[in-house]
Design goal:
It is a single chain. With 171 residues, this protein is α+β, with helices and mostly antiparallel strands. The protein is 37% helix and 23% strand. It contains 5 helices and 6 strands, in the order ααβββαβαββα. Strands 3-2-1-6-5-4 form a 6-stranded antiparallel β-sheet.
Length: 171
């Protein structure tokens, strides 16, 4: 009814996660929970990470949707190879002798990230949060939170892929 629609329209919106849907909504949720400068969902294609969704101030890192970043210039390169930290609280101090080119170029102060693994076991990409400053409060709990959201994203991406394939078969 018009009265119900008006009441819903006047309802306060808490956070941008309520404004979006699908992957965009989940990335916004991760961003709100982490409280970092930006949160991005990337897709791995042929040794390159492509930014597919983003929340927060991605401009602060010179990023935009569709931006392609060579995998070797990211913290995720080490995660993908099984040896990288998923939490970097202070990128200027915790580089273990391996300073990420992206960290230097984009002034990353802190990072938390997880792989996004599709239900069939394929690596889709990453879900990660970035801060312009050091974040000593980042924890394994933040990694777990991102892991849960990445799992939901992976299921949504898999379902979207099946829907797209079914649609193509019909037409």
């Amino acid at each position: 009814t018009p009265a119900q629609e008006k009441a819903l329209a006047e309802r306060p919106v808490v956070g941008m996660a309520r404004l979006a849907s699908g992957a965009e909504r989940l990335v916004a949720l991760a961003h709100e929970q982490l409280g970092l400068t930006a949160t991005v969902l990337t897709e791995l294609q042929a040794g390159t990470l492509i930014i597919r969704q983003a929340a927060g101030d991605v401009d602060a890192f010179g990023m935009r949707l569709g931006l392609e970043i060579p995998l070797g210039e990211t913290y995720f390169a080490r995660i993908a190879q099984g040896g990288g930290p998923q939490v970097v609280r202070d990128a200027q101090r915790e580089h273990d002798g391996h300073t990420s080119a992206l960290a230097g170029r984009a002034e990353v102060g802190a990072y938390v990230g997880v792989p996004v693994i599709l239900p069939n076991g394929d690596l889709f990409g990453t879900l990660c949060g970035l801060s312009r400053r050091a974040e000593p409060g980042l924890s394994v709990g933040d990694v777990h939170l991102l892991g849960i959201i990445a799992g939901i994203l992976a299921e949504d991406l898999e379902l979207a892929g099946r829907t797209t394939r079914a649609h193509k078969l019909k037409h």
